[in-house]
Write a structure and sequence with these properties.
The chain is an alpha+beta fold. It has twelve helices and 40 strands. Strands 1-19-17-18-16-13-15 form a seven-stranded mixed β-sheet. The protein has a seven-stranded mixed β-sheet with strand order 34-33-35-37-36-38-39, sandwiched between helices. The radius of gyration is 32 Å and the shape is flat. The N and C termini lie far apart (77 Å). The relative contact order is 0.09.
């Protein structure tokens, strides 16, 4: 295959035949345009609570005397009105004539709030409403509260606990926005379809002309995983509809022979094409067109967008050719800690100064780390960290510390150096929660350590001691800095990969085993032909979920319909469908028939929690239909390859697909998916163990023996004795042969 070449097309105004006809007749009355464009720009009012905006510091004191509230404004919105509604209480010890609360908006001082006289009793919190100038609104905005507090004009100690002011957690920002009609330009991508300024969940409709074929689904999966990677922690959902005119920002797939009604008169294309237009019924809604003369070109257009959008300009771009992208290696997902080499902390940095902390009780250094969930950690002390850090000089008489936490729980601590000229090096370990043999283990209590199945937060918190200087004051705060050096490393290159499956916990939280290769080139997804919109939506939400986990588009996912010629021996397998639809009439001796029959058995076991028997199929089918809305996720070993896995996501009805989609987006539900099968209903989540464990991965043979017999010490002791006897026998025979040889030489 050849190389990607993007040629941004000239901006072309495409007029449909109906528009030509309209233009031929002059408007009788143009007064409608006197006040501007006749279509009123949509407006919306947002209530952004401080809690929703992620504020976690409401109390101000003499040292930590400021807190910030960050919010954003989308590219396609303009702020028309901005109101800050807040209330606060304060220490009655503060002197009103010199104490006050300053409020800034984007570093502009807006107002100064007074502190009441300390002799007056504070009966209740007064609510304040400030109108902020919307002209100051930018893409990323910040409201800052800063306390100036004095309890004594002569003897002031900023570390005194009598200095405090606390904001109410019910405070909020009210923002009225009006939609902007953006130009249809590819250089905005991925905006406005995904806007990094928007911290809410991404909801992006995908529109198809009619029932989809495999190529169209693979093109859509590539884009949903790409958008899912962009959305990251925000999560993403992709509602699906057929032959619908977009009313909001949407993605539309069309070929020359298969266009939705609103594009029937749109010009045909000869190459894979990416284009942005406005919706014909809402000029404020942009439509991302994925066009091709056939569905093969749709795949090329989607691939070109995912990997080449940064060089696209204008309204239209065509993909002239595609270079063969290299296959991803195992465990090299961009958001995973690499398994083949040490990984430096600087590779985890997401924003400037992330590795630096400032102040006596400054912001901790936080790093998000995700590991391959099948790391073999049996009898390992932990994951090694080569930590380098430096700090401003600390007084020898005081104990200044650097605390290490994992997921908010204390792990280790280090005493800070008194000499700022050196970089301190420390070798430590991140303790682990052992996942190697806990596929069927339910833990109802919390443990301290890394959970390899999830994203973990590694925290380094600098705490500087304070020097008192007399009765009244301490050494003024300022100049306290701590830095985690970017050359610090995490190294898992000495770990093997071996895990017990089925384990839906690692599937739900890490997409394993499918995400072992970030591009999913060893995964086959089986879905029924002519699937409903809800089934396709589950497929796209799932691939978006995988994109969030790996940070990479799943552009090599193979999608297949149930046919008799499928080769399922080399790949891990995903199944999406309904029980009755998947049981299609295929020859009984084909691979797909074997797979679907095995899948039906596992699903029945999940529903009946092991009470199902193969000789009761009619009872099961009747019962499934009578149970109504259920979603079942089940995992088991592939019947075609012992090193491969199968995970099925089965819905008892089209409406039940939403249960499965929600389980991928809602963290609370995702955390409950465990074991080898999970049944999801409107009432909750039920976890079931339905099948025997199997293991995938490789470890040395001696470790394999010790690991599997470690829970059977008598068997292990018997084998050890047997091996010793065998060795002794061999040595005895060898010594006998040598003795016989010497005796025969002596006789000569």
């Amino acid at each position: 295959m050849t190389k990607y070449i993007f040629k941004p097309a000239f901006v072309i105004l495409v007029l449909c035949s109906s528009l030509f006809a309209a233009a031929s007749e002059p408007l009788a009355d143009k007064s409608i345009f006197d006040a501007g464009y006749p279509e009123q720009a949509p407006t919306q009012s947002l209530t952004l609570s401080f809690k929703r905006l992620g504020v976690n510091k409401y109390k101000l004191d003499g040292i930590n005397n400021a807190t910030t509230v960050d919010f954003t404004n989308r590219l396609d919105k303009i702020g028309k009105k901005l109101t800050l509604n807040f209330s606060y209480s304060h220490s009655p010890a503060l002197i009103s004539r010199v104490s006050h609360l300053k409020i800034y908006f984007n570093d502009n001082l807006i107002t100064v709030m007074p502190i009441n006289d300390h002799n007056k009793k504070i009966e209740s919190l007064a609510t304040h409403s400030l109108e902020l100038n919307p002209k100051f609104i930018k893409d990323f905005n910040q409201v800052r509260f800063e306390l100036v507090g004095y309890y004594d004009l002569i003897c002031q100690d900023d570390f005194s606990k009598t200095i405090w002011t606390e904001l109410s957690q019910n405070s909020a920002i009210m923002l009225d926005q009006q939609a902007l009609a953006l130009e249809s330009l590819l250089e905005y991508l991925p905006a406005p379809f995904f806007d990094e300024r928007d911290y809410t969940q991404l909801t992006l409709p995908f529109i198809f002309t009619s029932k989809t074929d495999k190529n169209t689904l693979e093109a859509a999966a590539t884009l949903s995983s790409w958008f899912g990677a962009k959305a990251d922690w925000r999560k993403a959902s992709f509602p699906v509809s057929f032959n619908k005119t977009p009313t909001q920002h949407s993605v539309v797939f069309a070929t020359n022979d298969n266009k939705p009604d609103f594009l029937l008169d749109y010009p045909d294309v000869t190459k894979p094409t990416i284009e942005i237009i406005s919706s014909p019924i809402n000029r404020y809604a942009k439509v991302l067109l994925i066009l091709g003369k056939d569905t093969n070109q749709l795949k090329e257009a989607a691939l070109g967008l995912a990997f080449g959008h940064k060089v696209m300009t204008g309204r239209t771009a065509s993909v002239n050719a595609i270079n063969q992208l290299p296959l991803r290696k195992a465990y090299d997902a961009p958001r995973w800690v690499r398994s083949d080499r040490p990984v430096a902390f600087e590779e985890f940095v997401e924003y400037p100064n992330q590795l630096q902390s400032q102040g006596v009780q400054g912001r901790p250094v936080n790093l998000d780390v995700r590991f391959a969930p099948d790391l073999f950690t049996w009898r390992k002390e932990g994951i090694p960290i080569d930590l380098h850090y430096r700090n401003a000089p600390a007084d020898e008489a005081l104990l200044s510390r650097l605390n290490m936490l994992i997921n908010g729980k204390f792990i280790n601590g280090f005493v800070l150096a008194t000499d700022s000229s050196q970089i301190v090096e420390s070798n430590s370990f991140m303790p682990l929660l052992n996942n190697n043999n806990m596929a069927h283990t339910q833990r109802d209590f919390e443990l301290t350590g890394l959970d390899l199945s999830k994203k973990n937060q590694l925290t380094y918190d600098f705490k500087f001691g304070v020097v008192k200087a007399g009765k009244c004051s301490a050494v003024p705060a300022g100049g306290e800095y701590g830095v985690i050096d970017g050359s610090s490393t995490i190294d898992v290159s000495d770990f093997h990969h071996y895990i017990a499956l089925p384990n839906l916990n690692v599937f739900a939280n890490s997409g394993f085993p499918f995400t072992k290769y970030a591009d999913l080139h060893q995964t086959t997804l089986i879905i029924e032909p002519n699937s409903s919109a809800q089934a396709v939506e589950l497929l796209l939400n799932f691939t978006g979920h995988l994109g969030q986990i790996t940070g990479y588009p799943a552009h090599r996912l193979s999608i297949a319909f149930p046919t008799s010629d499928l080769d399922l021996s080399q790949n891990d397998i995903l199944i999406i469908g309904k029980p009755d639809a998947l049981n299609s009439e295929l020859p009984k001796d084909t691979a797909i028939s074997v797979l679907l029959k095995n899948n039906q058995r596992i699903v029945n076991q999940a529903i009946y929690n092991g009470a199902y028997h193969d000789n009761e199929p009619e009872k099961i089918n009747v019962s499934i239909n009578s149970r109504g809305k259920l979603g079942i996720i089940a995992g088991y070993q592939s019947p075609f390859n012992s090193d491969r896995s199968v995970v099925s996501m089965i819905a008892t009805s089209d409406s039940a697909y939403t249960l499965l989609s929600d389980s991928l987006i809602n963290d609370t539900i995702t955390a409950q998916i465990k074991g080898s099968a999970t049944v999801i209903s409107n009432k909750g989540v039920k976890t079931i163990n339905t099948d025997d464990l199997y293991y995938v991965g490789q470890i040395p043979i001696h470790t394999l023996i010790w690991f599997h017999f470690s829970d059977h010490p008598f068997v292990l002791a018997f084998l050890s004795i047997l091996i010793l006897l065998l060795i002794s026998f061999l040595l005895w025979r060898l010594l006998g042969i040598l003795t016989q040889k010497r005796l025969s030489e002596g006789d000569e």
